[in-house]
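From the pipeline queue, job 12 of 40. The input is one protein chain; the requested action is below.

Action: predict structure.
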Amino acid sequence: MDRYEYCKIFVHGADPARAVGLLGALLGAAFDDEDSLTFDGIEVDVLGNPDGVPGAADFLRWPALVEVEPLDAPPSATVGLVARILTGLHDAGHLAVAACDYEDELPWSGGIRLFDRWAAGLDRGAGEGAGQA
């Protein structure tokens, strides 16, 4: 299996509708009625996390998921798009953590480094805003 075949991004503090709006603005592209778009040969789908729990601290329980799957794009384009999504979500004030085989090639190791700082802040009682600079 190609290590660049698929990526799932967990998004904190945004329901799927909000994530669609953020990503549409970030990419300058419109999602279809199924909350899906194809961008430079890469399919991007936004959906609700079936395991999501509002306000959950565990990133596996965050409410929105972004699935990224290359159709005919090279690995460098896929990594670039996922990096752009992570950075854009972070810049909009949302933590995001990518789960894929190429996390080491992404900003903040796929977002987990930011998550670790944020979670450590919660452990110290710093609240939801910790780690979101």
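Job complete. The radius of gyration is 14 Å.
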